[in-house]
Amino acid sequence: MEKERRKKTGGRQKGTPNKTTAQIKEMIVSLVGTQMEKWPVELDKMMRRDPAEAMKITGRLIDYVLPKQTKMELEGELKHKIDKIVVEIKSYETKDTE
Questions:
Q1: 63, part of any domain
Q2: Quick one: which of 3, 9, 31, 92 has the most CB atoms within 10 Å?
């Protein structure tokens, strides 16, 4: 038999961040913010020393900048039939201005 739950009284409101968590986030933002101008130089040094590691770090950082892409699947029926696709490749001549 399930217990009846009492209505919550007191404590933090829903969605209110924990003070310690907020302080840690603020500290990280401050630390990272002061180092931002050094990142390109340090990443360039790392690219020369260890390109694979530099790419791994860049890939990890991208996760914090770009949203993740999600796969979408569509089902349905096409109402129009495609008979033919034509690809035309043109050659352009360039004039040297020497």
A1: yes
A2: 31
